[in-house]
Specification:
This protein is an all-alpha fold and about 210 residues long. Helix content is about 50%, strand content about 0%. The chain has 12 helices and no strands.
Length: about 210
Amino acid sequence: METEKPPKNTEQEERFRKVKSLEQSFRDMRGLGGQVSVAYKDLCLFLDVQLLVGFKMPKFDLYDRHGDSVAHLRGFCSKMMGASGKDELLMAYFSQSLSGSALEWYTRQDHRRWYTWDDLAQAFACHFHYNLEIIPNRLSLTKLEKKHNESFREYGFRWREQAARVDPPMKESEMVDYFLQALEPTYYGHLVSAIGKSFNEVVKMGSMV
């Protein structure tokens, strides 16, 4: 079954997309969905996308399902400002800003559900919204323990990455205090003298224990 083509006129095309988006919402509510095809024309989600004159692919920060999905959308749109209003172009190249599980999510979607950029952005933000619900706090950082199969250096970087997500932001001295509280007694006994040093210095000291 051929997909209905939108009219060429820009204003009519925008109206068409909004109407089709509304129709899809009603179909979703009734539990209807499309089947996945491995044909080239279906795997290449946006066959008719035309690049803008002089368009150069920006270097995107990759999203791998961790972190604030809305913040990622903002970053992507900021780098694609020249494509404002070009919904299919935005939707087609959004995959270039994804990796890992997030890219897998994108490739598994039925692109026929996305008539506008807003459709894609809403689906993306909703799917990865759980990241905002599990943002670490100061107490949870003290419970973030070192894994048996990781080096102290790897653990320090992993812990620091989570600490960077705490709101309000932590000062370096505060991070050191909470990091020491998260350590096993063996490490704590050797590193308690590190209070007042930088976080990187503490990690280097721990690596030698």
